[in-house]
User: Which sequence fits this backbone?
């Protein structure tokens, strides 16, 4: 057993058997019992630089690095959802899985990712939007299985869609009242297509799943055309 002698007169000596005799936190507090003498030492630096551990200093054990788990932990999460959400697991920072960039809609721009909101899926606008919606509808019609739609109905819907597409193509090269007239004509053709499809669905001339997809495609095309018309062209 040693002594810790402080400065001053008279000197005050405290017996020392272990580090905690010198300071309640031992080496964590900057004192150690060395060769029976309490000696001032550099306090233990317990920051291991790992964001996925909770660092602390124990008077007996010294530095303790308890593993953390979960997401949103500062230093591990880079706050960029475009590369996924980083998580702490077993005391290590695990990279996240990037979210899918493709939303399955051919008529949105999926190339821009915001670090906070993720992929924006910005809808196309103007004539490109209408053309894309027409393409989506056309693909649904041409790709439908034979058992899901009759040949006659497929031809009728495709024919009306072709008329609407032709009106829009002419409108793209027109201006003013002429363009307005062409867009209105395309709208009428889409309206006719929608009614034809609705009747076919009521009479169960088209498979329910396909009818739903075609209905959504017609609604998307009509919405894009209305937006284009309201904006007065491209």
Assistant:
């Amino acid at each position: 057993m040693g002594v810790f002698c402080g400065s001053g007169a008279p000197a005050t000596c405290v017996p020392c058997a272990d580090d905690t005799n010198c300071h309640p936190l031992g080496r964590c507090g900057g004192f150690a019992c060395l060769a029976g003498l309490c000696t001032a030492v550099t306090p233990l630096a317990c920051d291991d630089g790992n964001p996925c551990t909770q660092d602390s200093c124990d008077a007996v054990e010294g530095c303790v690095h308890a593993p953390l788990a979960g997401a949103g932990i500062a230093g591990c999460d880079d706050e960029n959802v475009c590369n996924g959400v980083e998580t702490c697991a077993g005391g290590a920072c695990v990279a996240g899985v990037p979210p899918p960039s493709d939303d399955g809609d051919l008529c949105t721009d999926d190339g821009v990712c915001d670090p906070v909101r993720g992929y924006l899926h910005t809808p196309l606008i103007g004539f490109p939007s209408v053309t894309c919606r027409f393409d989506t509808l056309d693909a649904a019609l041409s790709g439908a299985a034979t058992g899901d739609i009759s040949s006659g109905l497929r031809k009728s819907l495709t024919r009306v869609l072709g008329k609407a597409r032709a009106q829009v193509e002419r409108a793209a090269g027109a201006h003013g009242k002429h363009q307005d007239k062409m867009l209105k004509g395309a709208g009428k053709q889409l309206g006719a297509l929608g009614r034809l499809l609705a009747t076919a669905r009521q009479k169960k001339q088209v498979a329910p799943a396909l009818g739903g997809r075609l209905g959504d495609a017609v609604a998307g095309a009509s919405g894009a055309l209305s937006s284009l018309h309201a904006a007065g062209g491209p």
